[in-house]
Write a structure and sequence with these properties.
This is ABC transporter permease. Its main location: membrane. It comes from Paenibacillus athensensis. It is a single chain. The protein is mainly alpha-helical. The chain has a domain of 175 residues: MetI-like (MetI-like fold, Orthogonal Bundle). The chain is built from 13 helices and 2 strands. A two-stranded antiparallel ribbon has the order 1-2. Strand 1 and strand 2 form a beta hairpin. The longest helix has 52 residues.
């Protein structure tokens, strides 16, 4: 009898281990249940629903009727606003992203010093990003650059004629784009973290070799920061394609639709004209453009992004 009990005991222990492992798995699912439910209900379902609605004529006032590719045909052949907003959005990304990254890198390098109260200055420079996309900030910006705003008043002091910053199509997009450059805090923090990771020994070796400030920047700092630049470039590009609040609040797409971003086109068709099916098709085109451009940036990074382990991925 003792021999039989001895033989059965290991099997019992194994069975208990398996049962305990299953219980731990259930506990894990319980912990992620809020996120999982949020993802399924608030993200995955709307995503798939919008894909279906993009092939329909749908509005809140009537049931969806399947129209196939008609929304996409109309978009590329008949909708003049589509091509205008696509061009404006591309210009917006080209203006906003480089300006923001350059400003973020410049300020990060200034704040990468052992100065008194440096943490206070870092927090101060990050503060504008807390209000990113804020309606209040956008309204303030509009007042600053209006015809009789503070900027033109300052220009008048130095005898420069006032500029129609927001009313002239030549200047409007650049003026609104300055708001994005001003809100560089998140990118700045990431650049600052990257700068902290660069070994001081590299700069010491460069100093021994007689390199000047510019040579240190282009030969040491910039190559070592390329992984951070890659991340910031991708994230800021995605954000720029989806920008809405700031340009909508300041110009509402004007003048002459010079700041009419793609997000405004989606908003107008979906909520002003109640063309939800067509707005869904526009959203999917924007989604695919973002995916393609992100993939291109990732693919190109093997030629310019450098990692310490030598793996350019």
């Amino acid at each position: 009898m003792k021999t039989e009990e001895a033989l059965q005991q290991p099997h019992t222990i194994t069975h208990l281990h398996k049962a305990a492992k299953k219980n731990y798995q259930y506990v894990g699912f319980l912990y992620i249940a809020p996120w999982l439910l949020g993802f399924l209900i608030l993200e995955l379902y709307p995503l798939l629903a919008s894909l279906y609605y993009s092939f329909t004529d749908f509005s809140p006032l009537k049931a969806a009727s399947f129209v196939g590719l008609d929304n996409y045909k109309h978009m590329f052949t008949d909708d003049r606003d589509f091509w205008n907003s696509a061009t404006v959005t591309l210009k917006w990304v080209i203006i906003a992203v480089p300006l923001k990254l350059l400003a973020a890198l410049a300020v990060a390098m200034l704040l990468n010093r052992n100065l008194k109260h440096i943490n206070f200055y870092r927090a101060l420079y990050y503060l504008p990003s807390i209000f990113a996309g804020s309606v209040a900030v956008s309204i303030l910006w509009r007042f600053l650059f209006m015809s009789e705003g503070l900027v033109n008043q300052i220009l008048a002091v130095v005898h420069i004629d006032p500029v129609n910053w927001l009313g002239d199509p030549k200047y409007a997009l650049y003026t609104v784009g300055l708001v994005n450059m001003w809100q560089f805090g998140t990118s700045m923090v990431l650049f600052l973290a990257g700068l902290k990771q660069i070994s001081p020994e590299l700069y010491e070796a460069g100093k021994i070799d007689g390199t000047n400030v510019f040579q240190k920047f282009f030969s040491i700092t910039l190559p070592m920061l390329t992984p951070v630049i890659l991340f910031n470039l991708i994230m800021q590009t995605i954000n720029a394609f989806q920008d809405f609040t700031t340009p909508f609040t300041i110009t509402k797409g004007g003048p002459a639709k010079a700041t009419y971003l793609f997000s405004m086109l989606i908003y107008d068709n979906g909520f002003r004209f109640t063309k939800m099916g067509y707005a869904s098709a526009l959203s999917w085109v924007l989604f695919l453009v973002i995916i393609i451009l992100t993939a291109i940036v990732f693919k190109s990074s093997r030629y310019w992004a450098h990692y310490e382990d030598g793996d350019n991925r």
